[in-house]
Task: inverse folding
């Protein structure tokens, strides 16, 4: 008994359920056997009882089971034979049935007949039959009795319909219906169906449910159709039976039409059903899908299924009730659990369908891919479904990834949607956590920044919404990304970790051991990544003082001390960055925030000591290395600039830094340094006249000389030996640290150090003069280093004082800016004669391979002329060796025939022409970085110097204003910053072997800010930049009017013209970089976009607030378009076009302005541009190609535009002198022809490929329009392809082979189906089209022969594919003829191999019979035989084929 009463375990539940059911069926049988054996047997002389007893069943009374003495089959056989062979048959059957009817009048007897019988046999005989059927079930198995017994059952059933359940727990209606299930044979199934449906119509609801669900187990297959129709009718009448009816319909074999009808009926009810009914409804809909209607059904289901409104109300209600009644949460908890159970059940149904039915999963993905809906609830389901299908079907993973990427790029899937998806469906997504993380990992491998961001958001919300185990998996995946070595993955994963630390520090602290493991992989991380990692670890370690964080602190201290003690700069860098970052977290100002250490307003003395000792450790470990010291100063400065430090730490740092800087670098101006210096020491670049000796100066030249002197093994003077030697390399970094410390302590007031703004520097005469040629290499290098250090000092001075508001300070800052520009010009002259010079470092957070980038600096002046004057210029004018594109190198060889491998000779050139040709762009890494605040100087007007006479003072006052050279200097730096931060990484391709950090050298401070902050800063500068843009526009307008529109008029070649033109280009480049930023598509940056557009709009219509986005875009487009009249160079023109395009992309109705862009591009192509100084054309090839592509992509009639260029411009070029150009298109010259040809061929192929193939169901007008379009396309193709007879250079032939094949392929796929059903009605047009195309393909065949004769591998690699395509054309035209009953008109022959000029190519097979020539002649008769209806058209197509077949024979 004890074992029966114990609580059920998971193993016992199944057996207990069986025991309970058996006990219900036979509750008193054993008791009655023991106590009432003499009263059990039914004593009756009726035929019914006797026949049963004879056949093997003994009836019992009361609650005892009827006893079966023989096997069930034997009993049925005996009873059947007894009845069948009885003398009074068939009357005996009626008597037997009436006896049964009278016997079951007693309710107990009726119940016994419905319950299973008890078997009385030996154990061995009964082993195979453990369960016996009821008496009624056994009798229903006899065909003679079945109809009558069914009739009796249905007559008895209504007695129990509205009665309560019996005391013994039996439900009589269900028990009666159970007798009809799984009968071996139904004698009259139609009658049985009628009776059951009548019964369902009158039964109460709870029984209706049971009766309906029993139908598949009762009815035969023949009745499925009738029952399906009746159930579908019942479905419209009684919505309460929706679920059981759909469950039954899913189990019946029904006609597709009926299923479709029912499916449409329930589809309309989806929005009104309860959450409990949804799983069954969705199961039926998915079950009824076929391959032909899968996409349609899934699309409709997606439109009607609104899970968000079904799920959220119940969950929100439950959560609200929890908040109201914290003590009584049982009902709300049950409600929430039931809702979650229904959701889980619903998605289990969907998972099962998409896992086992490929058509459903593919249709669902296709429906999501095709949708353009922006409704959030539908997109939430879409995203959840993509996750689910990704987890259930491995074959569709790539497809899902592609769809998801496209949705992200198009802006359909954004962060808010992803957050809502996790919020609504987190219960479901938690179960597929591994697949969700796998998808996020795949997205992080992308090159597109928006896709990488979306993948990182998946990690973020998975951590926020999932349980502890899933959180651990998320951290593990992120750590794997960080240790992968891929720069983009490392940056993204660190950003996610950093955000999670700030959002949920307690959960992150549980996983800190995983994050700590990244410390073993620091070698492959960039300085910026190391900063992030140590910030994360420091936040976890010091945010709360408890034992769990102590192990992180210990490990960090160990790593930092180990790295600081290293002699290798690579590892010392890690230690310095880690120590400073950790010190910043400990010393953070807690007076305004209690997020770190609550209860403490300021640092404790212990913490303050910890910070100062850590920083002193860094200082002592780095003081022997100037590079390490400078890095420490920069990192400390970044710390002070980025985060608020506690006042104690700032005070300590301020005193130490101020005194050390003054001792190291500042001297009295009256004490001129004495020593054996190679140059006379002078105090230069002072902004004040010092009459006394109280002035100060920067001791630069002596420090630099001392450093070089000691490096070369020289002896120190007594004065130098008494001082601690400080490297001049630390001058700029130390000053940056000093001014930021003073700035923080005095809230931006720099009075304490303002003397450093105007103080002079101990230098020497830097103007090269005549002695430049006579100086030694070491002296030249010394002067160059001196200039670099002076420049970097001035750059930091400008960084420091650019925000001062006093007019006197502003004038001094502008003067320093002017000094920078002058020094840069001097530096270019010195560098031109010092080719192998490597400057002193200015940026110190470098990796080992980047410490001495010789290759970027030690380049001779001549190489700089060719490769470094501009980023794109290098590619356009590159040599055959360096050009990555074989096509472009061929083009360039035509443009610049000079050989490129001249490096040994270039070092010997020292001509005046080359002295000023060095570009400082190559030395960008060796200049100190300008802060974004410096660009506030742009607010100064671009005004020439003038003399102001006042009434009070007759003396002339010179007003210092921002001049064009200084403006250009600022704009170039700003353009570089925007390109580095706002330009997507996909569009910034870098060489494979180039170190990953090279592009970020010189942008360390910039990377401390987010892209949004930088965009916001640039938007603040839009107004002054528009002022400068308009002033430059007016300058060129006046110059053009002065020269009467002459391109090469006076002033065009002047220095001022060149500077103004460069300023124009940089301004347009900056505007393009800003508006092309993909961050504007994010919702949080929408207001920023509005602000930027309002600035442009107000230049046209000031004072009109609250305009719609479309109006702002239109006005901004119009404003920028007005500048096209003053564009001075082709580069500016391209930037203006691209700027207008990015404005256009943000508009929802771009059609009108799209035509304006095409018109503007055509104007620029038809304009004469001034030529460059040292090149035949001022237009780089890649820029010309870009502008021509823009024109053809935006014009309404691509084919007409191509025909105009190829049919008008090119003939003009052919008839012009050698160096001349086309009169209609002056940009089209013999040097640029290949660019035009390539773009026109590519756009032609792209256009025809995008034309949809017609169908026979289309109207006649559509057929005619498409046929006319193809006629124009083939005509353009013919014009272009025939140009190779005149321009037969290798690049042109390569383009012809490549795009010729693609055009023929497009003709096969898009045009031939059109010709199939247009042939009969438009025979003449089709013949003309095929005849023209035949001539073109013949010329392609000649081109194949030409390529083989010249054995040009670049050309011959295209020949096999082209010949295969031409063979397919032969077969396809033959198929068209057969389709139109013209097979007899098709004939085939061999074409001779000829070259481009039509001359026969002599080969081994040239001795063939003259049939070749006759065939060739026959093919030329196509046009003559067009008059005949059948043969003419066949011959034409035939000729096209014939010519193709020859190529195949040649292969």
Result:
């Amino acid at each position: 008994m004890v074992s029966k009463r114990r609580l059920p375990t998971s193993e016992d539940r199944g057996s207990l359920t069986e025991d309970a059911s058996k006990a219900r069926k036979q509750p008193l049988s054993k008791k009655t056997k023991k106590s009432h054996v003499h009263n059990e047997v039914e004593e009756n002389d009726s035929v019914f009882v006797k026949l049963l007893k004879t056949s093997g069943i003994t009836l019992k009374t009361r609650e005892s089971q009827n006893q079966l003495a023989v096997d069930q089959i034997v009993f049925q056989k005996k009873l059947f034979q007894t009845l069948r062979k009885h003398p009074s048959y068939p009357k005996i059957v009626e008597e037997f049935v009436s006896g049964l009817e009278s016997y079951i009048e007693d309710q107990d007897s009726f119940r016994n007949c419905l319950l299973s019988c008890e078997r009385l046999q030996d154990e061995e005989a009964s082993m195979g039959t453990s369960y016996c059927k009821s008496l009624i079930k056994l009798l229903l198995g006899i065909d003679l009795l079945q109809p009558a017994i069914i009739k009796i059952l249905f007559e008895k059933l209504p007695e129990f319909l509205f009665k309560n359940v019996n005391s013994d727990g039996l439900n009589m209606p269900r028990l009666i219906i159970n007798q009809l299930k799984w009968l071996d044979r139904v004698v009259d199934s139609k009658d049985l169906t009628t009776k059951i449906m009548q019964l369902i119509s009158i039964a109460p609801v709870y029984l209706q449910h049971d009766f309906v669900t029993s139908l598949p187990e009762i009815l035969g297959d023949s009745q499925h159709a009738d029952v399906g129709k009746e159930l579908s009718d019942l479905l419209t009448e009684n919505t309460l039976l929706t679920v059981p009816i759909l469950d039954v319909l899913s189990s019946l074999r029904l006609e597709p039409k009926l299923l479709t009808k029912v499916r449409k009926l329930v589809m309309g009810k989806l929005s009104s059903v309860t959450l409990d009914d949804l799983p069954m409804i969705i199961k039926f809909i998915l079950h009824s899908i076929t391959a032909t209607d899968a996409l349609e059904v899934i699309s409709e289901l997606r439109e009607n299924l609104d899970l968000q409104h079904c799920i959220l109300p119940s969950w929100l209600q439950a959560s609200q009730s929890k908040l109201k009644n914290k003590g009584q949460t049982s009902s709300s908890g049950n409600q929430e659990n039931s809702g979650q159970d229904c959701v889980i059940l619903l998605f289990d149904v969907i998972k099962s369908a998409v896992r086992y039915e490929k058509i459903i999963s593919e249709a669902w993905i296709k429906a999501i891919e095709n949708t353009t809906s922006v409704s959030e609830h539908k997109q939430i389901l879409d995203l959840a479904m993509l996750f689910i299908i990704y987890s259930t079907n491995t074959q569709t993973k790539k497809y899902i990834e592609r769809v998801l990427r496209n949705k992200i790029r198009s802006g359909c899937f954004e962060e808010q949607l992803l957050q809502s998806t996790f919020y609504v469906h987190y219960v479901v997504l938690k179960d597929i956590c591994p697949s969700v993380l796998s998808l996020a990992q795949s997205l992080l491998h992308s090159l597109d920044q928006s896709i990488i961001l979306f993948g990182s958001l998946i990690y973020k919300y998975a951590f926020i919404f999932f349980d502890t185990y899933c959180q651990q998996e998320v951290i593990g995946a992120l750590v794997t990304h960080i240790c992968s070595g891929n720069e983009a993955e490392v940056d993204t994963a660190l950003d996610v970790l950093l955000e999670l630390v700030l959002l949920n520090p307690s959960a992150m602290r549980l996983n800190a051991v995983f994050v700590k493991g990244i410390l073993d992989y620091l070698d492959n991380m960039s300085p910026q990544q190391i900063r992030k990692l140590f910030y994360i670890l420091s936040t976890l370690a010091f945010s709360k003082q408890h034992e769990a964080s102590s192990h992180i602190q210990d490990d960090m201290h160990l790593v930092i001390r180990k790295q600081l003690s290293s002699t290798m700069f690579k590892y010392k860098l890690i230690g310095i960055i880690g120590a400073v970052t950790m010190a910043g977290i400990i010393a953070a100002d807690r007076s305004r925030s209690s997020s770190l250490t609550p209860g403490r307003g300021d640092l404790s003395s212990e913490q303050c000591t910890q910070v100062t000792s850590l920083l002193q450790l860094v200082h002592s470990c780095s003081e022997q290395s100037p590079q390490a010291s400078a890095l420490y100063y920069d990192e400390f400065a970044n710390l002070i600039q980025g985060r608020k430090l506690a006042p104690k730490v700032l005070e300590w740092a301020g005193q130490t830094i101020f005194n050390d800087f003054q001792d190291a670098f500042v001297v009295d101006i009256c004490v001129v340094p004495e020593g054996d210096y190679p140059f006379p020491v002078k105090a230069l670049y002072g902004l004040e006249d010092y009459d006394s000796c109280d002035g100060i100066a920067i001791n630069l030249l002596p420090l630099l000389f001392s450093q070089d002197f000691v490096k070369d093994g020289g002896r120190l003077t007594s004065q130098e030996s008494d001082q601690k030697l400080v490297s001049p390399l630390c001058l700029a970094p130390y000053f940056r640290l000093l001014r930021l410390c003073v700035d923080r302590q005095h809230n931006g007031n720099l009075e304490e150090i303002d003397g450093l703004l105007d103080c002079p520097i101990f230098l020497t005469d830097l103007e090269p003069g005549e002695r430049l040629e006579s100086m030694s290499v070491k002296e030249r290098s010394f002067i160059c280093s001196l200039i670099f250090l002076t420049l970097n000092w001035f750059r930091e001075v400008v960084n420091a004082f650019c925000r001062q508001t006093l007019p006197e300070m502003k004038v001094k800052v502008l003067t320093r800016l002017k000094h920078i520009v002058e020094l840069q010009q001097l530096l270019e002259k010195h560098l031109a004669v010092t080719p192998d010079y490597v400057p002193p470092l200015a940026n110190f957070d470098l990796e080992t391979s980047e410490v001495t980038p010789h290759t970027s600096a030690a380049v001779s002046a001549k190489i700089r002329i060719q490769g470094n004057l501009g980023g794109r210029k290098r590619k356009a004018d590159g040599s055959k060796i360096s050009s990555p594109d074989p096509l472009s190198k061929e083009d360039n060889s035509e443009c610049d025939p000079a050989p490129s491998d001249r490096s040994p000779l270039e070092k010997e050139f020292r001509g005046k022409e080359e002295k000023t040709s060095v570009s400082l762009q190559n030395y960008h890494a060796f200049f100190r970085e300008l802060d974004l605040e410096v660009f506030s100087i742009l607010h100064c007007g671009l005004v020439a110097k003038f003399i102001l006479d006042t009434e009070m003072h007759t003396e002339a006052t010179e007003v210092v204003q921002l001049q064009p050279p200084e403006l250009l200097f600022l704009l170039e730096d700003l353009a570089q910053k925007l390109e580095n931060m706002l330009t997507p990484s996909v569009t910034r391709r870098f060489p494979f072997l180039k170190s990953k950090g090279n592009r970020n050298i010189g942008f360390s401070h910039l990377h401390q800010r987010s892209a949004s902050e930088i965009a916001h800063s640039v938007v603040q500068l839009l107004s002054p930049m528009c002022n400068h843009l308009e002033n430059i526009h007016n300058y060129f307008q006046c110059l053009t009017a002065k020269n009467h529109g002459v391109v090469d008029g006076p002033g065009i070649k002047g220095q001022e013209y060149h500077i103004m033109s460069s300023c124009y280009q940089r301004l347009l480049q900056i505007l393009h970089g800003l508006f092309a930023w993909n961050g504007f598509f994010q919702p949080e940056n929408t207001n920023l976009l509005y602000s930027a557009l309002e600035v442009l709009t107000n230049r046209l219509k000031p004072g009109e607030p609250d305009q719609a986005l479309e109006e702002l875009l239109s006005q901004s487009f119009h404003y920028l378009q007005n500048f096209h009249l003053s564009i001075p160079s082709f580069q500016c023109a391209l930037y203006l076009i691209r700027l207008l395009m990015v404005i256009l992309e943000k508009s929802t109705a771009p059609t009108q302005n799209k035509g304006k862009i095409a018109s503007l591009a055509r104007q620029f192509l038809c304009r004469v541009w001034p030529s460059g100084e040292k090149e035949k054309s001022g237009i780089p090839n890649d820029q010309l190609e870009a502008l021509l592509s823009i024109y053809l992509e935006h014009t309404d009639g691509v084919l007409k535009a191509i025909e105009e260029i190829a049919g008008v411009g090119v003939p003009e070029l052919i008839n012009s002198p050698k160096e001349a150009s086309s009169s209609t298109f002056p940009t089209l010259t013999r040097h640029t022809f290949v660019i035009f040809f390539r773009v026109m061929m590519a756009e032609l192929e792209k256009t025809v490929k995008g034309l949809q193939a017609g169908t026979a169901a289309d109207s006649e007008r559509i057929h005619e329009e498409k046929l006319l379009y193809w006629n124009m396309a083939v005509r353009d193709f013919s014009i272009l392809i025939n140009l190779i007879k005149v321009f037969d250079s290798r690049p042109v032939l390569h383009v012809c082979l490549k795009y010729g094949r693609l055009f023929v392929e497009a003709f096969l796929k898009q045009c031939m189906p059109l010709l199939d059903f247009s042939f009969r009605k438009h025979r003449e047009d089709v013949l003309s089209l095929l005849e023209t195309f035949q001539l073109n393909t013949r010329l392609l065949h000649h081109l194949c022969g030409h390529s083989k004769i010249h054995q040009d591998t670049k050309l011959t690699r295209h020949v096999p594919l082209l010949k295969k395509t031409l063979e397919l054309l032969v077969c396809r035209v033959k198929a068209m003829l057969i389709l139109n009953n013209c097979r007899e008109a098709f004939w085939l022959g061999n074409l001779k191999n000829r070259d481009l000029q039509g001359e026969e190519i002599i080969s081994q097979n040239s001795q063939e019979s003259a049939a070749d020539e006759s065939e060739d002649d026959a093919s030329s008769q196509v046009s003559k035989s067009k008059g005949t209806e059948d043969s003419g058209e066949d011959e034409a197509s035939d000729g096209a084929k014939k010519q193709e077949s020859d190529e195949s024979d040649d292969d």
Remarks:
- The beta strands are 57-58, 67-68, 118-119, 666-668, 682-684, 696-698, 761-763, 947-948, 957-958.
- The radius of gyration is 45 Å.
- The mean pLDDT is 78.
